[in-house]
Amino acid sequence: MSDPGASLARLHLFCAACAIFATGYGLADLEPSPAMSTVLWVGPSVAVAAWLAADGRRTRAVAAYDASLFFYLTWPVTIPWYAVHTRGRAGWGLAAQLYVLAVVGRLGLAWGALLRWSIGRLAGVGASVSLAVLGTLVLGA
């Protein structure tokens, strides 16, 4: 974790993967397995908390041994505090970015459901879209 940009890039990659999977589940109107639900709902916020703890060690802003647990349990409050404390006024952009990353799994499910509803409206079949209709719209077959 010597390069903070690389660790933030890995955080983006993990959260993007969660968003893609969550959007796919929402679009296909499938219920994820319990393990996948846990990864999609809790994984991004745990990853943000782990990044905050690692960055806190790097910047020496937080010297607590269990900073990851503290950041996970209190992330709605500690994200802006930490970002502004370590980066000044420029930290508000980082705080907004970390908020979005922490909830990206939940947003992905909603985004997929909204896409499914929109495609259904365009196809004229209402809110429920079968995969066949979706494939026809996407592939043009």
Q: Major sheet, described briefly?
A: none
Strand content: under 5%
Report the uncertain regions: none
Shape: elongated
Kindly, what is the distance between the CA atoms of the first and last residues, rounded to a whole number of angstroms? 48 Å
Percent helix, as a range, is over 70%
Core attributes:
141 residues; mainly alpha; elongated; 7 helices
Report a brief summary of the structure.
The chain is built from 7 helices and no strands. The chain has about 140 residues and is mainly α. Helix 2 packs across helix 3, helix 2 (about 35-60) packs parallel to helix 4 and helix 4 (about 75-85) runs antiparallel to helix 5.
Helix and strand arrangement:
Elements: H1 4-28, H2 34-59, H3 67-73, H4 75-87, H5 91-102, H6 104-123, H7 131-139
Helix pairs in contact: 1-2, 1-6, 2-3, 2-4, 4-5
Report on this model:
The chain is mostly helical. It has one domain. It has 7 helices and no strands. Helix 1 packs antiparallel against helix 2. The longest helix is centred in the first third of the chain and has 26 residues. The termini are far apart. The mean pLDDT is 80.
